[in-house]
Amino acid sequence: MKLEYIDELISKMEKASLTELSYKDGEVDIKLKRDSMYEQQNTPAPVSAAPQQPKPAQSTEPAPKEEGKVIKAPMVGTFYKASSPEADAYVKVGDKVENSTVVCILEAMKLFNEIQAEISGEIVEILVEDGEMVEYDQPLFRVQ
User: Fold this and answer.
1) Spatial CA neighbour of 114 closest among 102, 126, 127, 123
2) If we measure between CA atoms, which residue out of 74, 75, 78, 69 comes closest to residue 141?
3) Beta strands of 66-120 (E only): which ranges?
């Protein structure tokens, strides 16, 4: 395998904000992995450039209602409250959730990832809009 090809894999890995990449072709087996700290330092600038405009309004709204636990985004992606535009939302304000309850979908690179609550309680506030781009560790739901 040529060094240029490995460099190209690394470049594509960085552009796609991947933390791990495995490639196998015949006898060639490559596994690339980078520290997630590197990703956090390098990806927020391009990803957050557009959403930073509406964020001040959002960050001022939840401030008075900081009681309770928060379900945060485990990754960067597009937030969807339902599995399809015609489907009902996974959860609404007032719904009870358990650790394994699916609360939303985050789309990243055309992959739809179901996000589980990982805490139990009642949804008291949905902090993002359907179709909105979210960042890693951004609060999505407030739970009591």
Assistant:
1) 102
2) 69
3) 69-72, 77-80, 96-97, 102-108, 111-116
Q: What's the sign of the alpha-carbon dihedral 4, 30, 18, 110? A: positive
pTM for the whole structure = 0.54
Nearest to 116 by CA among 143, 85, 88, 87: 143
Write the DSSP symbol of residue 94. T
**DSSP 3-state of 22:** strand
Q: Is residue 60 scored above 50 in pLDDT?
A: no
Q: Is the pLDDT of residue 76 over 80?
A: yes
The Cα-based distances of 67 to 25, 37, 50, 89 in angstroms read 52, 29, 29, 24
Enter the tokens of residue 2. Answer: 């040529």
Residue that is written with structure tokens 């015949």 in the block: 26
- Helix, strand, coil abundance in the chain, percent, nearest 5: 25, 35, 45
The whole-number average pLDDT for the span 78-97 is 94
Tell me what pLDDT residue 16 has.
Answer: 78
